[in-house]
Write a structure and sequence with these properties.
The protein is of the alpha+beta class. It has helices spanning 2-15, 17-24, 38-50, 59-62, 66-72, 84-94, 98-116, 181-192, 210-218; strands at 123-130, 133-134, 143-145, 150-153, 156-160, 165-169, 198-203, 222-225, 237-241, 248-253, 258-264, 276-282.
Length: 286
Amino acid sequence: MARCLVVIHQVIYSLGLTATAGDSLADARTGKNGRHALVGMLRQSVFGRLAGYEDVNDAVRLRHDPAMRWIIGGKAAKGTGASPSQMGRFETNWLARSGNLAALTELSGHWIDQVATRRSRNRIVLDMDSSVSPTHGDQENSVWNGHFGCTCYHPLFVFNQFGDLERCALRAGNVHSADGWEDVLKPIVARYQGTVARIAFRGDAAFAQPGMYEFLESGRIEYAIRLPANQILQAESVICSSARSGGRRTTYSGSTRAFTTRRRVGPVRDGLSPKWNGTSESCSRA
């Protein structure tokens, strides 16, 4: 495990990812005898979790581990890493400040852009979905969710086609799956517009909303969104077509139980059928 962590750290170090994080975080400590920089404690927090240690109390052991001390760097390389009490203050006090929370929200995008300088990307595919994070005890915003059948948080994530986390939002357990999608998706699209040739979006039925369609079409973003089940779609054979110029064409076949949501690109010329550019997915129906 230690060898794997060292390899991961070498890749991250060569890309300058933790250095970017260190520049983004604001240190509110006023003392002059601090032993560990915020970026060092961030490394200890992240790599501790990569090694399978999720509790700050695990710092009792990890702070003495030679590989971890080398990864943390600074004074820890010849001494020890941060103690459990220091890690507790770092994660619940210093990182929880509004400025640092905003910096952490943008950090994934900064890291992806740094990696992209070494990887071509003419087209980006954004996949948005919610998830469940079960909780225990009386944690703030921890609420019972009837769909998942547990007390939880209901976070929202956006990944790209390479598996990179573009942005996320921690939400209360009882919110709708698409709640707050604008605050998560729009900054990502704004970051990519003008830097990539094509942007595409994928989402499940929770995102089949007029506001989402309007946003995607106004930005000429390709998309594939699952349609919510209803009596019309559950019929044996239904074909729907929107006559709106530049709009969506949606088809559903009862025999194959498949749907397609596409965005039209290009005008009708010389009586020829318009070109369509999009993706399709299949889903099972009860």
